[in-house]
Amino acid sequence: MTIRRLSEAMINRIAAGEVVERPASAVKELVENALDAGARAITIAIEEGGRRLIRVTDDGRGMSPAELELAIERHATSKLPGDDLEHITTLGFRGEALPSIGAVARLGITSRPAGQDSAARITVEGGRRQGPRPAAGGRGTEVVVRDLFFHTPARLKFLKSERAETAAASDVVRRLAIAHPDVAFRLATGSGRDLVLPAAGAEDERALLKRLGAVMGRDFMENALPINTGREEMRLSGYAGLPTLNRNNSLMQFLFVNGRPVRDKLLMGALRGAYADVLHGGRYPLAALFLELPPAQVDVNVHPAKTEVRFRDPGRVRGLMVGAIRHALAAAGHAASTTVSQAALGAMRPSGLGLGAAAGGHMPRGAYAPSRPGRAAREAARRG
User: Quick check: 52 and 147 in contact, CB under 8 A?
Assistant: First the structure.
């Protein structure tokens, strides 16, 4: 077969397969764009798990008509001044998100920067562009994605159920919301239970912990150990849960590198190792940890999804994380989480009235049930 050049439309559709794997990928890219634009309030709406509709509205800087035209071009971005890949300080930088979405969906962008009387709108459908043209709209940007993957029906077959895709999109929003407690988020999924996270005040020292409580639950807020330590140019901060507050999965583990949500094997392994002596296998601690280090010390340009990173000195990163968490756990001593303490008190009540496992009830969700619940419950109550 003769070698030939692919068409521009085919190139964009192939590239889109890496950037937009599922509706949650599109949500992530659009919300990151809003944050990079300085938004203080972001509203996300999805329908049918994001297949039918994704709408992201923000009050950020907005774009002029000329910038709108550039925004849907491949590898056009405002986030790499000086073309320096070693000092990336924004969430986005590849310039691939909007053209990739436009290649596989019906994309519409309406934007108005401060100081302009009217907004402009541009549309892209299966890679074909129309506009920009004048439109009504407030300051900021609204991006509407309809019929995701209508141009690549094979990809639709690999999507999960509406419930699973909605859960994945919600997880993306929660992770970004944790990293930005000063930004208001609202997520509407059509289920009738919107996720509403008000922005914290600039002077609120407990802003992060309050946002974590809203996302991870009050139990975590009441049983979180503060982490704040540094080594040379690296700093680790955030909160780690008591070992007695745990789950059977890692969904409540939130890790960030320079404000970027990541799913890094090194960091996940370090977190697991830090709890190895105090948590049985098959149980996962709850944690939200933020690693800050010079941009030159970490490579975020590993994959188009930008959730994987590589560290210049992985051993030092792991050592800092394991040491900081173990130090916090040691300082906490034998403290038990409030959920286990409440169950322990219930276990000591007369038969029929107890809430704990020893009284015929159940341990609270997420708490590790010891092999001898009655004895463990009495010891926890006596200590605490």
Answer: yes
Q: What is the mean pLDDT of residues 163-189?
A: 96
Distances (CA, A) of 168 to 23, 30, 50, 251, 286: 8, 15, 10, 11, 19
For domain 206-336, give the fold. Ribosomal Protein S5; domain 2 (3.30.230)
Pairing of strands 310-311, 298-299: antiparallel
pLDDT at position 345 over 60 = no
Query: What pLDDT, on a 0 to 100 scale, did the predictor assign at position 380?
Result: 44
Mean pLDDT across the stretch 351-360?
Answer: 40
Whole-number CA gyration radius for the chain: 24
256 within 8 A of 229, measured Cβ to Cβ: no
Torsion of CA 143, 147, 148, 154, to 10 degrees: -170
Identify the pLDDT of residue 254. Answer: 97
- The SS3 call for residue 49 is helix
The residues spanned by each domain of the chain are 8-197, 206-336
Q: What's the CATH number for 8-197?
A: 3.30.565.10
- Tokens 């704990």 sit at which residue? 356
Using 50, 70 and 90 to split pLDDT, how confident is the model at 84? low
31: Cβ–Cβ under 8 A, 6 or more apart, which residues?
Answer: 42, 44, 56, 172, 173, 176
Which residues, other chains included, contact 43 with Cβ-Cβ below 8 Å and sequence gap of 6+? 55, 56, 57, 58, 185, 186, 188
Distance CA 258, CA 256 (A): 6
Would you tell me how many other CB atoms lie within 10 Å of the CB of residue 194?
13
Distant-in-sequence, close-in-space partners of 177: CB < 8 Å, separation ≥ 6: 183, 185, 197, 211, 215
- Taking the C-alpha atoms of residue 281 and residue 258, their distance in angstroms, rounded to an integer, is 30
b (16+ CB within 10 A) / e for 291-313: bebeeebbebeeebebbebebee
**Crossing angle of helices 314-332/265-274, nearest 10°?**
30
